[in-house]
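Chapter summary example.
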Amino acid sequence: MTSHKISLVKPSPVRKVAVFCGAKTGNDPLYLNQAIIVGAFLAKNGIELIYGGSNLGLMGALASSALSHGGAVTGVVPTHFEKSETIQENLTQLIEVNDLSERKEQMLSLADGFVALPGGSGTLDEIFEVITLSQMGQHKKPCAFLNINQFYDPLISFLRHAQENGFIHPDYINMLIVSESIEDTINRMQCFKHPHLS
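The structure predicted for these 198 residues follows.
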């Protein structure tokens, strides 16, 4: 009988999380409430929030909640894009960049993992860029959808449809974290192992 040595996967420490979400609150109060819960959870667990720096919509609620619970919050703001009055006050750190591309680069370099809350085209652009870069081997950090109120169900169904039609490798679907709970999301991020570790 052949003996197999079992190697333990060392958990990946997630101390800074980039959260992508809407600059609007959406039509259901549940989205706003969950953004507040996420901010509080990150702060209480000593996880720094990296986000787009705005005080609007879910973004503002998320940051305000994290700050009010004593958390560290870094805002990455394109100077020509954000008006000064829409920048969140009392941020732990404010990083000014030239444009949206630089903002995404900064957030990629700063964060240990990425979470998408509900949002629109900007949120999708941000999360899909880090997912694509992961597929290309540019990083091996966890990417997650916080599926509040089944918000991302149609998107996940589409991704599985694309997989079934041969456009996405199954590994790249399986590596995505999809959960309705921020606690479960972070726990799974802490134990994440990229499917194509070299």
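To summarize the output: Residues 1-11 have pLDDT under 50 and may be disordered.
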